[in-house]
Amino acid sequence: MPDKPRMLEGYRVLDFTQFVAGPTCTRVLAEMGAEVIKVELAPSGDRVRAGGLKPLTPEYKDSSQSSYYFQHNHSKLSLAIDINRPGARELIYSMVPKIDVVVENYAPGIIKKMGFGYDELRKRNPKIIMCSISALGQSGPLAYKVGYDYMGQAYAAITDGIGEADRPPAIVTMAIGDVSTGMSAAMAIGFALLHRERTGEGQYMDASILDTYFHMHEANVPMVSLRGGKYRPTRSGSQHPNGGPTGILRYRGDQYIFLAVMPHQWPQMVRAMGKPELASDPRFRSARGRRDNNEALKGIIEEWLGSFPTRDDALAALDKERVACAPVLSLNEAMEHPHLRARNTVRRVKDRFLGELDIPGVPVKFSAWPDKLDLRAALLGEDNERVLHEVLGMPDDRIKALYSEGVLVRDPALTAEPQSRAS
Fold first, then answer.
1. Residue 137's closest CA among 123, 155, 120, 122?
2. What does the alpha-carbon distance between residue 93 and residue 197 come to, in Å, rounded to a whole number?
3. pLDDT averaged over the chain?
4. I want to staple 65 with a disulfide (CB 3.0 to 4.6 A). Which of 129, 138, 353, 369 is the partner?
């Protein structure tokens, strides 16, 4: 099974991405078997190389490797160039006929100014597929704005819904929109490749963090559309506005349980608590009543939860009646949980420079392609020779000249002389 070709083997991707959203997309393509050539610009490449933790060994502590870079860019090749040097753009153009997919996530308009817009690349390869990823999209009145995950989140009315009702909106500090947009873009590229297999047509795709976030509104958009100003979603803190009870409840101290009880599951919750009187209590008899009396119900449930010797005992009582529940874990606790370890949700890998470390696994498990554990993340420009040899058939003396001309750059931690094909 491990020798079976992965689904995207044979496809080649030119990757003009940085930070998180774009690199997530191309990293997924690489995990699925595509050859991803990450084009990094002099002098330092992707800016996340400076983020996260650096290697501890003295000879590599100032290298271009970091834990942040490894997580989002493993399984890719690094081609590092100074795009402003004479001949640099022509070098990229010469590769385009050998490329299947181009992905970029510069601010709208930048990739075109660099000379690598879709119309320009399509002249050189009519079947090429290109995906641009941005905060707010390539078209529309706001397309000119630069931005990150948080800007898409704010414009999509997600930020307004996070936090306590009587306080300002709160921030989610992880890159939910970035990662989700990268995943959506990777999915779209897969569909575009299938379309090309059937029709021979390439195409251009516009993925935005704004669109990804807005797509996450699971119920309220049609309600606002139909009711207009009469309906306005509000922040509800740790409790779901529809009651349920659904929300975060305290067990004891700083330990919490997330509970989700759908209206039809209320009898199960009553049985789990051993409190049949709640079923006939007029405050809680209906779903609307439980919503309107949510605070009172929350207090009753928290008192019951706190009566158990441990949080796990409380969860077991809920599980016995198949009430949806989960402990609210810290990241440290989640990473040590046996379930996440068993599924490779937390994936233990080893890097040449960082040593052993954990990174997230692939979020969908394939029966034919298990998660890879033997991962490699390149230092800046580490694959210059390999890429130019294999894609362009470029001889060693010409590659050496490109270094002398300043077109190619590489991490100083690598050997002073680039390795020839025969080395």
1. 155
2. 24
3. 95
4. 353
